Every structure is written in C-alpha cells, then in structure tokens.
Amino acid sequence: MTSLVDLDVAGKRVFLRCDLNVPLKESKITDDGRIRASLPTINALLEKGASIVIAAHLGRPKGEVKPELSLAPVAVRLAELLGKPVQFIPAITGADVTAKAQALAPGEILLLENIRFASAETSKDESERLALATELANLADIYVGDGFGAVHRKHASVFDLPKLLPHAAGTLVAAEVEVLKKLTVDPVRPYGVVLGGSKVSDKIGVIANLLGKVDVMAIGGGMLFTFLAAQGKEIGTSLVEVELIDTVKGLIKQAEDSGVKLLIPTDIVIAPTFSADATPTLVSSDAIPNNQMGLDIGPESAAAFAAAIKGCKTVFWNGPMGVFEFPKFAAGTKVIAQALTEVSGISVVGGGDSAAAVRALGFDDFQFGYISTGGGASLEYLEGKELPGLTALDL
Hints:
The chain is α/β, with parallel strands linked by helices. It contains 14 helices and 17 strands. The strands form four sheets. It has a six-stranded parallel sheet with strand order 5-6-4-1-7-8, sandwiched between helices. Strands 11-10-9-15-16-17 form a six-stranded parallel sheet, with helices on both faces. Strands 13-12-14 form a three-stranded antiparallel sheet. It is elongated, with a radius of gyration of 22 Å. Monomer. It comes from Candidatus Planktophila versatilis.
C-alpha cells in the first residue's frame, strides 16, 4: 500500500473520498466530529501542493436529490475549520464539474454534492458503478481514500474508483485500521467489549465472532431486551426481535462454553412511553410491567459494567446503553463513557451513535484512546468480513 507520506501530489489534482456524514438538525450540524477527523489528510495534501476534489455522502438519499441531505452546510463548516475557502458545487458530474475541477490551482478545494444523489454510486450493477467511477476519475490524477465510515460498502467512489487511478489510504483510514488490528491481532488482555444500540440483528455477527476472543462482554441498549426474553423474562413493551430469541439463546450458551463473562443488565430504567418527558422508574430486570418499556440500563448494571471495563486493558464500545438523547435516560451511557476514560490500556469508541453520545454528554475526544468514525465499518471488520474499500486500497 502506498502511504500518504510517500505520495507525490505536488501540482496534481487529488480525488479525496471523505466521510462527512454528519448529523443535521434543521440544516444545522450537531456534531462535526467526522469533518474534524478529515482535516489531517486534507491539510497534508494541501501542504504537499495538491488541489483537491472532495466527494462524500450524507444520509441515505437512495439515488434521489434531497435538499435536506445536501452537503452545502458541510462545505461552510469545512471552510471554517480549514480557515480557507471551499468551493461547493451542487452537482457530482457534468461539464461544469469537470471545468471547475480542471481549473483548480494548487491549494484549492472543490466539494462535490452528496455522492449518493447519484443512483450509480450505490448500484449493485457493476457496469453502472464503473460508468460513474470513470467520470469521476477524469476529475483527478490520484485517488486518496479517507472515508472509513464507507469502506464496508461496494460503492463507486469507494471500491471502483481507486482501481482507475494511482491510489493511497488517507491518514484517517490508516489510523482506523491500525487501531482495529490492536483489537483483533493479539489484543492486550483482559479484553472487554460493550455493545448497545437498538437491534441485536445489527450485531449478531460481531457478537458471535468476538465471543471466542474476548474475556468480558456487556450487553446494553435496546438489544438487551432480546437477551432478557431469551432468558425467559418479561420485557413489557420494550423493543425486541422475537425471531432472534433462539439465536440469542445460542449466543448465551456460546459465552458459557467459551468462558466469556457475559454481562446482561439486572436493573432497568423503564417508562410508559418513548418520550423525553416520560416518567422514569427503576425496576429489576425480571420485574418489567407489561405496559412499560425499558429505555436505559439501571445504576446497578451500569456500575457492574464500569467495574468490568476498568479491569480491562483493551476495551471496544459500540452502541449507547439507553436513549441518551433523552436526559432522563442517558445515565447508563454516561457511566460507560466515564469508565472508558479510566481504562489504563486502549479504549476504542466504535463510531456512529457512540461517538455522538460521548460528545453530547460532555466528553472530549482526547479522553478516550480512540474514537472511530465508522460504526458499521468497525463492526464488520471485527466480525472478520472483508471490507471492499480497504481491499481497493490494498489494505
């Protein structure tokens, strides 16, 4: 793999695939973490005398132009953080895009519109993706892949395009892979994993793969109720994936057989409705009323998870413990985040909602060993899957 350090880009146009998929509320960016994570690569390329054409996605427009998912607000914030102009063009391909790209002088930046507005970007038809990739390849001399949050997708700008140009991994992708290798290749023990989020189905593969490799695994978030149901407990109106109950029973048995300490909450914060204004009540995990739903792990469980985390030398966390967006149901997630800041070894926050949660709850990035930018990509890497975007970069 060619590294960014060795790349000769002086006077050349670089097509840079970033991950600028930031959360928006009424067209306002609520967490610019992914934009900030892209700055080292952008600045390194500028310092080497390159001009840059940036492509990125935002949300899942599914090939349609959706104004609310435009990258225009991202262009404004990127310019603020860089302290220099960023040209934004509300198009992905075409004569105007080509002209603007070719007119770039060293040190200048052009940001294309949301790459997923083009249906060919995410097409399963290889010829459609290749046609788009070929158009994009005409905009630059070199390709740099730095959008780690998309490397698990076989998309035109992630998988097909780097095959058409000299290519290298950006500093963010290189750093992400280095950290993930520490979690998969001879991790320092004890090794603990905390998994949350809403659905077990999103994490079945990684749970099954990691159960044979970790010492401790803690389960929180909405997915915990499928585990409670698998234990034969009543879960009221809590989120559950009934079709996966038997699968989860198998995972619990796998943990026992592997000698993994599997932590499932013993107390739950419940409420009658999914609402920020709902009245919380603390109950035992085997005493959830049939007209109430669980929205957070309880303090006893949070303390047990935290104690287990602090005793580990390597920790990976993906998925909040409860509905952290509602202050009344954010305590469990906050306790876990605090515990990760106290790990003596390496602590990795696995992107997505987990990264948004720690920032929303008042933590700084530097308090953790590493905050990943790609939750889904991190999980698939830990699941042992081949990631198309990394394969294309020779990683």
